[in-house]
Amino acid sequence: MSSSPNCILILFFMVTAMVRAQVQDAVQASKAYRAQLNEDFRDPDESPLESKDLENFESLDFFDIDPDYIVQATFVRTPSESPFEMPTSTSRTATYVKYGELYFKLKGKELMLNLYQNQSLRTDPEYFDYLFLPFTDQTNGVSTYDGGRYIDFSIPDSNSVIIDFNRAYNPYCAYSGQYSCPVPPEENHLETAILAGAKKFLKS
Description:
Layout: H1 5-42, H2 51-55, E1 70-77, E2 84-87, E3 93-106, E4 109-118, E5 130-135, E6 149-154, E7 160-164
Antiparallel strand pairs: 1-3, 1-7, 2-3, 3-4, 5-6
């Protein structure tokens, strides 16, 4: 028996309202995230900034929060992946496993990013559900850090997730040479400009 036009219309509005609410929640979460990030960077015990940069630090530079960069993605688990050594900005490597794939549409383009799980964190009670989303895009070396940016993720509990590029942040290597930071794999390069999240840091 086919659904009536009224039922289909009601369902459409319910889904639209749900997505809109998720986006609004994400916008508020992005604002809170940025405020906390700035607070951490001002704290000498938490900040990755070198002393000369910390002295004059007021705020990180971000793109304006843009709801268009909050996208709904389809999560596909990839359970049979083998561990691999992800290069870093130094000679150190870190062991990761590709955990899954995220398929989404952004400004009319069909895109995909891989999610990774750090194998040394799997047994850590604080980070056991942590997933790593590193990426590069066409803004790198122009308005954003040359080495790409990161987004933090948790293990999804469904195949529908939200990616908020407004929460993309720079690796600590963008602020100081004393850190060793994972280099985003080539397959996580986006052939588009992500005009959201943290911008390039201009040192003192």
